[in-house]
Write a structure and sequence with these properties.
Strand content: 5-15%
Number of helices: 6
InterPro entries: HTH_HxlR, WH-like_DNA-bd_sf, WH_DNA-bd_sf
Strand order of the largest sheet: 1-3-2
CATH topology: Arc Repressor Mutant, subunit A
Keywords: DNA-binding, Transcription, Transcription regulation
Protein name: HxlR family transcriptional regulator
Helix content: 55-70%
Number of strands: 3
CATH superfamily: Winged helix-like DNA-binding domain superfamily/Winged helix DNA-binding domain
Radius of gyration: 18 Å
CATH architecture: Orthogonal Bundle
Low-confidence stretches: none
GO molecular function: DNA binding
Distance between the termini: 39 Å
Length: 124
Amino acid sequence: MSPVLPLPVTTASRETCTATDVLRLVGEKWTVLILVVLRDGGPSGFNRLDRTVEGLSRRILTRTLRGLEEDGLISRRATASHVEYALTDLGGSLLPLILAVGEWAVEHAPEIAAARAAYRSGLR
């Protein structure tokens, strides 16, 4: 298996790596949640998204939607009366990969908790 990044890992190689860019995107606090909401709830207007996700400010929602649209993960369709956001095929193809990480986390939560407890008890 060849490395994703050449070793040693330099700042330049990290910044130009496509995987780093995508991981940064999906690591943002609201990105995955918005994608899942659009998958499960279908196309949605801004106000519906705002009401659906508690704790998400309108400013951050706007920024997140613009970023997802820029990356082609969602589409934005404006009509005379409202704007509607929808998951694109590209966004839909990313979701199973992200959800697999979430499922892995749930499945292995007891092991992670045990490892953390063992680590912390060894530090005292």
